[in-house]
Amino acid sequence: MANLVTSLCCVVLAAVVVAYAQRRSQLVARNQYERMGSDVTMQCGSLDNDASVSWKVNGTDVKAQHRLEGPRLILTQVNLGHNGLYSCFQNPHGERRDTILLHIGIPPREPTVTCRSNTYPKGFYCSWHQLHATYVPTTFEVDVQHNQRSLEVQKDSVHKNRCHVRFPEVFSSFPYKVNVTAVNALGKASTTISFEESTIVKPDPPERVTATPIRLNPRRLEVSWQSPSTWPDIDNFPLKYFLRYRPLIRDQWQHVELSDSTSHTITDAYAGKEYIIQVAAKDTEIGTWSDWSVAVHATPWIEDPLPITSTTEGDFSTETKTSPIPSSNAPQKAEPPVGRAAKLLTFFSPLLLGMLLLFM
């Protein structure tokens, strides 16, 4: 009896597990990818052709142009506006039977691929991108061949559409062949390029460019820079440099090419004019010039102006000021009291002298 009860319990438990799994499979949305502009058919689970169902998209009734054929919903000429979560419900009880996440997009086209070595002779990197959006997730597969063997490809940790490849040998005469394939749920497309090692060498721009005026030299600027930090072996693979400069008041650049020096003195600058200066770098034998460095601005030495001497208040006290002649009807300035006493003394002095003589 105990064995029978145990067996029945196991059967019931198995049935519950199966029912739960079926229920979960109906509730979890499944992805469906379709091409833009096509007619799309969505099937409501595994219901029979005579089943009656209703559909909702994102929780509301389907309003886009469509038709129903039993358990199937047919959308015509779909576009990005048809993206969404579609759910179907079996009539008459309205039980949800399936959920579909619809993605509308286009197949990928041939990607654009470029390769460059800014760390010569260590290796090179390749970048790729799609000229047209696909609107659905697209991945890329990369294959690099050299001398009839595949090379290891390392994906870039920062740039998702870039990979790095080490040179298997230096000064190789065998070309490299790089194939990049774009893949999504709607199709795939590939691009293949071939190149020789020497044609993809391009350093990064020089760094820490500075321009300093030279004292007592109003037409000179001392320019210095450092080789790019990404260039791994400057001693065995030296760089040459290209300097350009111009005053801001003119559009025409002046150029100087230097063998391996990381400094240069400009001797023909316009006195007192602000200059803009940039530097580029290139391997001395192969490859192409780098992009221009970040522009720096500088102005040649300008002589300090002579100090302005200020006049003190005491200096103005010795100045003679001429007052304008007053007009006839203007009020005359009153005479000072000391002047009147002197005139009275002059008038009475003979009389006082006579009286003094009488009393003597």
From TrEMBL:
Keywords: Cell membrane, Disulfide bond, Glycoprotein, GPI-anchor, Immunoglobulin domain, Lipoprotein, Membrane, Receptor, Repeat, Signal
Annotated spans, Disordered: 305-335
Location of this chain's protein in the cell: Cell membrane
Main location: membrane
GO molecular function: interleukin-11 binding; interleukin-11 receptor activity
Keyword tRNA-binding set for record: no
Membrane topology, as annotated: Lipid-anchor; GPI-anchor
Record domain Ig-like: where: 37-88
Domain of life: Eukaryota
Family statement: Belongs to the type I cytokine receptor family. Type 3 subfamily.
Protein's UniProt name: Ciliary neurotrophic factor receptor subunit alpha
Native source species: Echeneis naucrates
Taxonomic lineage from the root: Eukaryota, Metazoa, Chordata, Craniata, Vertebrata
